[in-house]
Design a protein that fits this description.
mainly alpha; about 110 residues; single chain; elongated; 5 helices
């Protein structure tokens, strides 16, 4: 049986545990259980900031480094602090500017 390429292997990975196992990253199961979606989203965000090399070995190294970094973010912190998803930003104080010229008065019956 032929070994899968990196791209082929990535197509079969579905959970944070799958990714961590595939890339040989040791992890604490309770940390991953609570933060699996956050870890994968952070991993995705980190990869989005990278220029991925063409060579498979170099690309694999970038994936390993960024997945390790994403996992460690949640070892040292938590989902509420890291605020990976938009929902965590919804209740933060919002600053809106409304120019005085846009304020109108509606008179009842007018």
């Amino acid at each position: 049986m032929d070994e899968l390429t990196l791209d082929e292997a990535l197509e079969d990975l579905v959970s944070a545990e799958d990714f961590l196992d595939y890339f040989g990253i040791e992890y604490d199961t309770p940390v991953v259980h609570v933060n699996r979606l956050h870890i994968l989203q952070r991993f995705h965000n980190y990869l989005g900031k990278e220029t991925l090399p063409e060579a498979e070995d170099a690309r694999r190294a970038v994936y390993v480094a960024n997945l390790q970094r994403a996992y460690q973010d949640f070892v040292r912190s938590d989902a509420l602090t890291e605020k990976v998803f938009k929902v965590f930003h919804m209740h933060e104080p919002q600053t809106k500017f409304v120019p005085l010229s846009s304020i109108t008065v509606n008179k009842a019956g007018a």
